[in-house]
Design goal:
By secondary structure, the protein is mostly beta strands. It is built from 1 helix and 56 strands. The strands form 13 sheets. An 8-stranded antiparallel β-sheet has the order 53-52-55-56-1-50-51-54, with no helix packed on it. A 6-stranded mixed β-sheet has the order 5-4-35-34-31-30, with no helix packed on it. A 6-stranded mixed β-sheet has the order 15-14-19-18-17-16, with no helix packed on it. A hairpin with a 6-residue loop joins strand 17 (167-171) and strand 18 (178-183).
């Protein structure tokens, strides 16, 4: 049976309303620091972004898109004001992402790092993509094999010879010489494509030292031992390609895994034959030389839409590289590129950015009756030092109009300790009328700080136990204090690295006794092997709403799982109602927080992410939500119990019942319907919108 109907559907870019909640992402709640307004406070932070250009809004000017390898997060910044817009792509993106147009259709395609090579996704319009190549191949002369890129490297992808198609520069597997893989698509087919052949094993006639970043000129391929496999002692380099005008030979900026500087290599040859003739090993030696800990990469992009490409420089070492530093060098050249240092905190100087990870929890630190926010993290990285800290956002607004001041990024002076992960939980453990503090630690244990303040006085927290209740959940303890079973005693639930929950029921009416533990509480898990989520890093948060007990669980995937109305399920398996709670994924390693900030009885939602920032969603009245409604002819088929939608670029479909409970999901353009009759909502997510369709069976 084929059905063709004209129905109303909802464009839900940032607003989602099904069932008992409705949320709209908000960037307007004021945050200040040192008497300065953070104009990008709620944009979510940036750790190790790699930038590319694209004309997203088709206005003839180059916008910026960033891929943050910390959490595999895509963020778009449009127009001269660099207006923030999160991007959700259900693609396997890893290590690095460069947007380049390989088929000359004026649509930017995606090149991304994969194990030992490059994966390519073709842009099929409306910023939606399909897999073009699982791993690029190249003709190596005697045989064809994967085009090798070391797991730590970033290659140069540009039209080297001016023939219209994209060529690739990459360090060979010893990490000493650069290979040129020339694209022969134009020559062989007349069309742009991905047809590569190894043209030179030592492009530019130079080499890089095996253990340092020293460059040697006037080298040749006969000096290259091509039998070396697996990489040398120095196994990591980044290549940025610089072309200051059309038809000019390509210069290079090279970063090295063990160094803070960039080497600028001037190409004194031609487009057809490259030859490096000069090195600036302290680039830019004429301005403020790059000194970024560690393993820098330079994105050569037009930042300010003046048609000249600037440099944005970040670390690519996501373990110990500086995670709160983006250096902006503006191109002020007239006849040739000249890069002038502007700032080392581009974009992030106006964001809430807590380093790696952001774990928010409600507090009332100064006891004024307003919700403040305490934020833990998974370390700030600065010049080789990894230190976990706590940050305090104090609510300086009113009950109905919240605004925040970032009081300190080192609350309780934890930067003087050696902890690299701090995950806060708050509750009155000793029942003396004030909030105490638990801190989950990387070793799976929990630190207890007792609040010794008098009534109505600001927190006065001192360490009471370094190993609270001898609890050890393995690694990355993520505690939450909440009365789960409704007996008026505060219980303790702890997430952990492997994605499950440990539930400690409080056995004491007068104080606390967490001797009884239930492992694998509710059979909740944030692991997902099919999506490459092999651990999970569960982050639980309980809340009551309209008399029902609910549980949100964030994790490594960046999605927040929702378990609604679980009061009758806590001794059994919890039913998953939302695999991605109200479609709020924005990067990896989510940590949810929900509560009414503005006194309208509709809870707000805050989610921390791996990039070190926070996303804020204002709660709206589900009955009066102002969605944008449009009429469109929607074609779909129902055959037996299968619904097939005829919409372009569908990335995911969710089927929900009338109360917003998730029934099933699909990654295709069809989804199974239940045999029961009733009203259902089909939520179809495309590359540019989420569409909700009401189905009556």
């Amino acid at each position: 049976m084929r059905i063709c109907l004209t129905i109303s559907f909802l464009h839900l870019f940032n607003t989602f309303s099904i069932g008992q909640f409705s949320f709209e992402r908000n960037y307007d709640v004021s945050v200040t620091q040192n008497n300065r307004t953070l104009t990008r406070a709620w944009e979510g932070g940036l750790n190790y972004p790699i930038f590319s250009n694209l004309d997203f809004d088709n206005n003839g000017k180059q916008d910026l898109i960033a891929f943050d390898k910390s959490g595999n997060r895509m963020i778009l910044f449009t127009n001269e004001q660099l207006i923030f817009q999160p991007i959700r792509l259900e693609l396997s993106l890893d290590k690095w992402v460069l947007l380049r147009d390989f088929n000359c259709d004026n649509l930017p395609d995606i090149f991304t790092g994969t194990s030992g090579g490059i994966r390519v996704y073709k842009n099929i319009g409306n910023f939606s993509f399909e897999l073009e190549s699982t791993i690029l191949k190249s003709n190596l002369g005697d045989f064809t094999s994967s085009l090798f890129v070391s797991v730590e490297d970033i290659p140069g992808i540009i039209d080297m010879d001016g023939d219209g198609d994209l060529d690739i520069l990459t360090f060979e597997n010893s990490g000493t010489y650069i290979e040129l893989h020339r694209n022969l698509s134009i020559e062989n087919s007349g069309n742009c494509g991905l047809d590569f052949k190894l043209e030179s094993s030592c492009w530019g006639n130079f080499s890089e030292d095996a253990t340092t970043n020293e460059i040697y000129l006037n080298q040749n391929c006969s000096q290259n031992n091509l039998t070396i496999l697996g990489g040398g002692e120095h196994a990591g380099s980044t290549i940025s390609t610089i072309q200051y005008e059309v038809d000019a030979p390509i210069d290079l900026l090279i970063g090295d895994i063990s160094f803070n500087n960039l080497n600028y290599l001037t190409n004194g040859g031609s487009q057809s034959v490259g030859k490096i003739t000069h090195i600036d090993d302290n680039f830019p030696s004429y301005d403020n030389p790059v000194d970024l800990y560690i393993f820098p990469y330079a994105s050569h992009v037009d930042v300010n839409q003046d048609s000249k490409k600037d440099l944005l420089i970040t670390s690519t070492n996501s373990l110990i590289g500086n995670n709160k530093e983006i250096s902006y060098y503006k191109n002020i050249g007239i006849y040739q590129d000249t890069f002038s240092f502007q700032t080392n905190s581009f974009l992030i100087e106006d964001m809430l950015d807590f380093g790696t990870g952001a774990y928010p929890v409600w507090v009332d630190e100064n006891q004024d009756g307003l919700k403040d926010i305490l934020v833990g993290n998974n370390a700030n990285n600065k010049n080789g030092n990894r230190k976990a800290t706590l940050s305090l956002l104090r609510n300086v607004g009113t009950q109905n109009d919240p605004s925040f001041e970032l009081i300190t990024e080192d609350y309780l002076n934890f930067s003087s300790y050696d902890e690299q992960y701090l995950y806060p939980a708050v509750g009155d453990l000793d029942k003396d009328g004030d909030d105490d503090l638990l801190l989950g630690l990387q070793n799976g244990k929990i630190l207890y700080l007792n609040n010794q303040a008098q009534a109505y006085m600001p927190y006065d927290l001192t360490i009471a136990s370094a190993e609270f209740e001898n609890i050890d959940v393995g690694n990355y303890a993520a505690p939450v204090l909440f009365d789960v079973n409704g007996d008026s005693a505060i219980d303790l639930t702890v997430g952990e690295q492997n994605g499950s929950l440990f539930y400690f029921e409080n056995q004491s009416e007068e104080n606390y006794d967490y001797s009884l533990v239930v492992e694998n509480f509710g059979e909740v898990s944030t692991q997902n092997f099919s999506e490459g989520i092999f651990f999970g890093y569960s982050t639980p948060y309980f809340f009551n709403h309209n008399g029902s007990l609910n549980l949100l669980v964030g994790g490594e995937s960046g999605k927040t799982q929702g378990y609604m109305s679980i009061e009758d399920e806590i001794s059994s398996t919890l039913q998953l109602d939302f695999s991605d709670f109200y479609n709020t994924q924005d990067g990896g390693f989510s940590k949810p927080l929900i509560g009414d900030l503005n006194g309208d009885h509709n809870p707000e939602l805050i989610i921390g992410n791996q990039s070190g920032g926070l996303a804020l969603y204002i709660g709206l009245d589900p009955e009066n939500t102002n969605e944008i409604k449009t009429s469109q002819e929607v074609h779909f088929e129902i055959f037996e119990n299968t619904l097939k939608l005829h919409l372009e670029s569908i990335q995911k479909i969710e089927l929900m019942d009338l109360n917003g409970k998730l029934i099933t999901t699909s990654q295709k353009n069809q989804i199974f319907l239940p045999e029961t009759r009733g009203v259902f909502f089909v939520i179809a997510e495309t590359s540019s919108e989420r569409i909700t369709i009401k189905i009556l069976r």
